[in-house]
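Q: May I have one protein plus its fold?
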Amino acid sequence: IQGTRALSIQMSPPSSRGGVQHPRGSMPLHQIRIREATRMDLPAVVRMLADDELGATRERYEDPVPAEYESAFEAMEQQGGNQLLLAVMGDQVVGCMQLIVIPGISRLGMRRMQIEGVRVDASVRGAGVGRELFVHAIGRAGEEGCGMVQLTTDLSRNGAHAFYKSLGFLSLIHI
């Protein structure tokens, strides 16, 4: 894909790793609620997607939300195993990620969970929101019978790479 440089990373099945640990000093779990997005959440999600150097060049945060985001959300809703997960504090959306369950033929038909579009609101980065999203996503991967969790990230997101490594993800391919 022209102009896109990505790093594909994955982790082994959640059950064999003992799960993701919550570090000391992270936000109390009762303050972060994880839920699936609705169409009404799109403005908050698009705002987070556009709120960094890379996102500012490839996303369009406007009011109302551009029709392309509405169409994409509708397509996700219609496709089984494709959902937008949110982290919410009070009534504010502070994190998001897209989860896609991918059926496979290899490894005896093993299913994989692909994680995309991970963002945490700048005001709460470092407070445990991203970690809580991943704990939930990895738990959901196990519930869905996935034997692997994988994600892609832009090569320029060095801070994100360190975070993903702290969760147990391993770098595999540089594109």
